[in-house]
């Protein structure tokens, strides 16, 4: 198998933790419902490929995301993989369901813009934060880790460019609430490296340490990996990615294409940054899932490595 | 039209010159022969979109690249665009043909590896250099600018990773011969940012100034734009790209996907780096050409910007 030559670059972390979102963020955009056993096998194979954090599912009301209505059935099937298995919880009811199954990490999903908060949650930004507060507080009381997702951190399909100060305010609110990790989402994929650097610097100056930040880039305009490089150069060590490039955001105009985990691993391996992931096993997993879904992976690395010459 | 927010980053050039290769490197991989008038219109539209350097065609023997057998007919049709129109010349016969039509810039195409020199030119690396020497010398005597392409600068499908010293030796030979610009090609798309930085640094130390270097990345593994960012951070100001992501290399295993000019312009515009290119006009040009070719552009930016919501 072709692999990159390893040549480190200065000023980059020695290790990056990949937060794999394919099984949740990726699959939730699939129209045809994927069988629970396929999802479980997908998660087991991702764990087998060396991914240490695999977002497993969402305890959202089944009416809103029918694809993930099997959370209660799925979670027990994968609990024994031995990896971190965060789950999305939209509210206290979702938290109850997750805790009842023994989830040890949960995530809430906030928005940096009023338009998306309204579209996604039918709430203002502050109303959404108020809804998350008891979720976060109760999770912490149970010793459960909480990740705060923040969407639309760079641009918004209704509002256009999003002011950095606005993103800092909501991120800080989530951090102050007790979220131990904040994932900055470029939901519509418009960010560029200078913008990434400016937001990370502003958050740092506002007292949110970079060690608590993750980046979540979309490849809508082909920018996800260069933005990731910029984030690494600013000290970020947690990167969200989706195996095979699965997914996007169904509520956001033109928001297609999570950063493919394979494209990310290729770059990190070339840079000599440890991830624990075996690129061959990961690619095989994405090829296998693409067969289950009946269409090819959009990841360029998956396509190139699985190409029969 | 959605556009990135402009946020400059430190340590990057104020302006980048894009060397547009779609009309030559892109089209030469198309099996169905594109009518000469369509090629001419493509080049005129690229010039209209603000591209200042458009590689127009190749004066290779028609037997080898039937797609470009119309070089004599095409070149006079686009000469009046007023932009720089370099043309590829494989040997002295090609140079004669280009000079007869009034070409003011030519390019030769060398290889950093023996395997590709053999496959592409049926010569050793040094035999190929010897063949180029009179081409370069005569072009300079005529006051014609010469670009030297160097392929397989990072990896080679037969040889694997390519040692940096080997690339430095051949690049220096082309520079010493008189090529005023050297384009470093990642023909199979395997490079990563640290490798890019190491090669640029080594060339600089060997006396080849960065101002004479261009980078030519392929997106086979999704790495082209992050490698470009790394090159800009090392002072490179000339970047090769192909409108709509047209092309690849027919002789190199898995070598698909030139960096799409639109994806590059998106990043540069976001960084506030001047290119003179109008992204809307450029995208419209790639959409128009895709219609002529009968299939969608692989550029993510073209797809996103031309998507009907």
UniProtKB/TrEMBL annotation, chains A, B:
Q: Which GO terms describe its biological process?
A: ketone body biosynthetic process; L-leucine catabolic process
Q: Which residues form the Pyruvate carboxyltransferase domain?
A: 16-283
Q: Which CDD domains does this UniProt record tie to the protein?
A: DRE_TIM_HMGL
Which InterPro entries does the UniProt entry name for this protein?
Answer: Aldolase_TIM, HMGL, PYR_CT
Q: Does the keyword Cytoplasm apply?
A: no
**An example Gene Ontology molecular-function term:** metal ion binding
* Record carries keyword Metal-binding: yes
Which keywords are on file for this protein? Lyase, Metal-binding
Q: Which family does it belong to?
A: Belongs to the HMG-CoA lyase family.
Protein's UniProt name: Hydroxymethylglutaryl-CoA lyase
Organism of origin is Streptomyces purpureus
């Amino acid at each position: 198998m072709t692999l990159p030559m390893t040549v480190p670059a200065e000023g980059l972390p020695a290790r990056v933790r990949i937060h794999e979102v394919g099984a949740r963020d990726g699959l939730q955009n699939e129209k045809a419902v994927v069988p629970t056993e396929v999802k479980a096998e997908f998660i087991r194979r991702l764990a087998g490929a060396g991914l240490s954090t695999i977002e497993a599912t969402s305890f959202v009301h089944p009416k809103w995301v029918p694809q993930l209505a099997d959370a209660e059935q799925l979670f027990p099937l994968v609990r024994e993989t031995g990896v971190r298995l965060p789950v999305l919880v939209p509210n206290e009811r979702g938290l109850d369901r997750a805790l009842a199954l023994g989830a040890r990490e949960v995530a809430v999903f906030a928005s940096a813009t009023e338009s998306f908060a309204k579209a996604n949650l039918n709430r203002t930004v502050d109303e959404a934060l108020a809804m998350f507060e008891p979720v976060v507080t109760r999770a912490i009381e149970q010793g459960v880790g909480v990740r705060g997702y923040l969407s639309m951190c760079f641009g918004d399909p209704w509002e256009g460019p999003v002011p950095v100060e606005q993103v800092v305010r909501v991120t800080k609110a989530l951090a102050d609430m007790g979220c131990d990790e904040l994932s900055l989402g470029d939901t519509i994929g418009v960010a560029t490296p200078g913008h990434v650097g400016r937001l990370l610097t502003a958050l740092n100056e506002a007292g949110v340490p970079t060690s608590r930040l993750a980046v979540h880039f979309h490849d809508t305009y082909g920018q996800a990996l260069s933005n990731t490089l910029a984030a690494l150069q600013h000290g970020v060590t947690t990167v969200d990615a989706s195996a095979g490039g699965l997914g996007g955001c169904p509520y956001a105009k033109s928001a297609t294409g999570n950063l493919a985990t394979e494209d990310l691993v290729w770059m990190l391996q070339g840079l000599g940054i440890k991830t624990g992931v075996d690129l061959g096993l990961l690619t095989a997993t994405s090829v296998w899932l693409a067969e289950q879904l009946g269409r090819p992976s959009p990841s360029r690395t998956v396509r190139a490595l699985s190409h029969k010459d």
